[in-house]
Amino acid sequence: MNEFLTDQAAAELAHLDAVKYEEAALERETLLEFPCAFPIKIMGPATVDFDTQIRALVVQQLGELPEDVWKIRPSAQGNFVGMTLTFTATSKRQIDNLYRAITAHPDVKMCL
Q1: 67-78 pLDDT, tens per residue?
Q2: What single-letter DSSP state applies at residue 30?
Protein backbone atom coordinates (compact mmCIF):
# COMPACT_ATOMS: atom_id res chain seq x y z
CA MET A 1 0.00 0.00 0.00
CA ASN A 2 2.95 2.37 0.66
CA GLU A 3 3.78 2.41 -3.07
CA PHE A 4 0.81 4.79 -3.52
CA LEU A 5 2.09 7.41 -1.07
CA THR A 6 3.34 10.74 -2.29
CA ASP A 7 6.97 11.60 -1.60
CA GLN A 8 5.86 14.07 1.06
CA ALA A 9 3.58 11.53 2.78
CA ALA A 10 6.34 8.92 2.70
CA ALA A 11 8.79 11.42 4.21
CA GLU A 12 6.30 12.30 6.96
CA LEU A 13 5.81 8.61 7.79
CA ALA A 14 9.56 8.08 7.89
CA HIS A 15 9.93 11.09 10.18
CA LEU A 16 7.22 9.79 12.54
CA ASP A 17 8.89 6.38 12.64
CA ALA A 18 12.23 8.03 13.46
CA VAL A 19 10.66 10.11 16.24
CA LYS A 20 9.01 7.01 17.75
CA TYR A 21 12.31 5.14 17.61
CA GLU A 22 14.17 8.00 19.32
CA GLU A 23 11.51 8.30 22.02
CA ALA A 24 11.71 4.56 22.70
CA ALA A 25 15.50 4.80 22.92
CA LEU A 26 15.25 7.68 25.39
CA GLU A 27 12.82 5.67 27.53
CA ARG A 28 15.35 2.83 27.65
CA GLU A 29 18.18 5.22 28.64
CA THR A 30 16.61 6.31 31.91
CA LEU A 31 17.50 4.57 35.15
CA LEU A 32 13.97 5.07 36.41
CA GLU A 33 11.45 2.26 36.35
CA PHE A 34 7.96 3.51 35.61
CA PRO A 35 5.60 4.14 37.24
CA CYS A 36 7.54 5.72 40.10
CA ALA A 37 7.27 8.51 42.66
CA PHE A 38 9.12 11.50 41.22
CA PRO A 39 9.84 14.79 43.03
CA ILE A 40 10.24 18.08 41.20
CA LYS A 41 11.50 21.11 43.14
CA ILE A 42 10.56 24.59 41.96
CA MET A 43 11.83 27.89 43.31
CA GLY A 44 10.31 31.29 42.61
CA PRO A 45 8.88 34.44 44.22
CA ALA A 46 6.72 34.00 47.31
CA THR A 47 3.52 35.34 45.76
CA VAL A 48 0.01 33.94 45.50
CA ASP A 49 0.16 34.45 41.72
CA PHE A 50 3.30 32.33 41.38
CA ASP A 51 1.82 29.51 43.44
CA THR A 52 -1.44 29.60 41.47
CA GLN A 53 0.28 29.73 38.08
CA ILE A 54 2.65 26.84 38.83
CA ARG A 55 -0.19 24.68 40.10
CA ALA A 56 -2.18 25.50 36.93
CA LEU A 57 0.78 24.42 34.76
CA VAL A 58 0.97 21.16 36.65
CA VAL A 59 -2.76 20.54 36.25
CA GLN A 60 -2.42 21.11 32.49
CA GLN A 61 0.31 18.47 32.32
CA LEU A 62 -0.81 15.92 34.91
CA GLY A 63 -4.46 16.62 35.68
CA GLU A 64 -5.86 17.31 39.14
CA LEU A 65 -3.67 16.10 42.01
CA PRO A 66 -4.39 15.90 45.73
CA GLU A 67 -3.08 18.71 47.93
CA ASP A 68 -0.73 16.37 49.80
CA VAL A 69 1.57 16.03 46.75
CA TRP A 70 2.78 19.59 47.42
CA LYS A 71 5.26 20.74 50.06
CA ILE A 72 5.75 24.51 50.28
CA ARG A 73 8.62 26.16 52.14
CA PRO A 74 9.30 29.89 52.28
CA SER A 75 12.87 31.17 52.19
CA ALA A 76 14.46 32.55 55.35
CA GLN A 77 13.51 36.14 54.50
CA GLY A 78 10.20 35.20 52.90
CA ASN A 79 11.03 36.59 49.45
CA PHE A 80 11.08 33.21 47.72
CA VAL A 81 9.28 29.93 48.02
CA GLY A 82 10.39 26.37 47.42
CA MET A 83 7.66 24.13 46.04
CA THR A 84 8.20 20.38 45.93
CA LEU A 85 5.76 18.34 43.89
CA THR A 86 5.96 14.56 44.23
CA PHE A 87 3.82 12.72 41.70
CA THR A 88 3.60 9.28 40.13
CA ALA A 89 5.53 9.56 36.88
CA THR A 90 4.54 7.18 34.11
CA SER A 91 7.25 8.00 31.54
CA LYS A 92 10.35 10.04 30.86
CA ARG A 93 8.37 12.01 28.29
CA GLN A 94 5.86 13.00 30.98
CA ILE A 95 8.67 14.23 33.25
CA ASP A 96 10.34 16.12 30.40
CA ASN A 97 7.09 17.79 29.33
CA LEU A 98 6.35 18.88 32.88
CA TYR A 99 9.88 20.20 33.35
CA ARG A 100 9.66 22.18 30.09
CA ALA A 101 6.29 23.69 31.05
CA ILE A 102 7.54 24.75 34.48
CA THR A 103 10.87 26.18 33.32
CA ALA A 104 9.10 28.17 30.61
CA HIS A 105 7.39 30.23 33.32
CA PRO A 106 9.24 33.58 33.52
CA ASP A 107 9.31 33.70 37.34
CA VAL A 108 10.80 30.24 37.92
CA LYS A 109 14.27 30.76 39.36
CA MET A 110 15.19 27.09 39.55
CA CYS A 111 13.60 23.72 38.78
CA LEU A 112 15.23 20.41 39.73
Answers
A1: 999 999 999 999
A2: -
